[in-house]
Amino acid sequence: QVQLVESGGGLVQAGGSLRLSCADSGRTFGSYTMGWFRQVPGKEREFVATISWSGGNTYYADSVKGRFTVSRDNAKNTVYLQMNSLKPEDTAVYYCARGNNQRTRYYPPRVTDFGSWGQGTQVTVSS
């Protein structure tokens, strides 16, 4: 059973930065596409960013493009989300997720393509 544990969330002022981390307990982390998603109460979980197994390909939601950067360190079984120029509308619980299998592609990003999820970390951006 794969376990994903996010960390790095918190409260930050608009314009600030946060770096989220997600540690994967699986032995085959480096073979899977990873993704970041977010959710606010009363709304569906939405895509933020994905990264291919090698880290060579990434894809972002239009709302975060140019502000967020996804990366991974396969030697550490960890995926990161660097969030800069944060806005109040970025406030949400952020989840990392692992592709259902080794064929899961980074694009197009579909929530249903990701079967293992972390517990989430709260990001709150004050205005």
Protein described:
The chain is mainly β and 127 residues long. The protein has no helices and 11 strands. The strands form 2 sheets. Strands 2, 4, 5, 6, 9, 10 and 11 form a 7-stranded mixed sheet that branches. A 4-stranded antiparallel sheet has the order 1-3-8-7, with no helix packed on it. The protein starts with a strand and ends with a strand.
Architecture blueprint of SSEs:
Layout (H helix, E strand, L loop, with lengths): L3 E4 L2 E4 L4 E7 L9 E6 L6 E6 L6 E3 L7 E6 L4 E6 L8 E8 L14 E4 L3 E6 L1
Parallel strand pairs: 2-11
Antiparallel strand pairs: 1-3, 3-8, 4-5, 4-9, 5-6, 7-8, 9-10, 9-11
Features:
globular, 47% strand, 127 residues
Question: What is the structure about, briefly put?
Answer:
The protein has about 130 residues and is mainly beta. The protein contains no helices and eleven strands.
Radius of gyration: 13 Å
Distance between the termini: 40 Å
Q: Count of helices?
A: 0
Class by helix and strand content?
mainly beta
The shape, in one word, is globular
Major pleated sheet:
7 strands, mixed
Proportion of strand residues:
over 45%
> How would you state the average pLDDT, rounded?
95
- Poorly predicted regions: none
Tell me the helix content. Answer: under 10%
User: What is the H-and-E element order?
Assistant: EEEEEEEEEEE
Strands, total number = 11
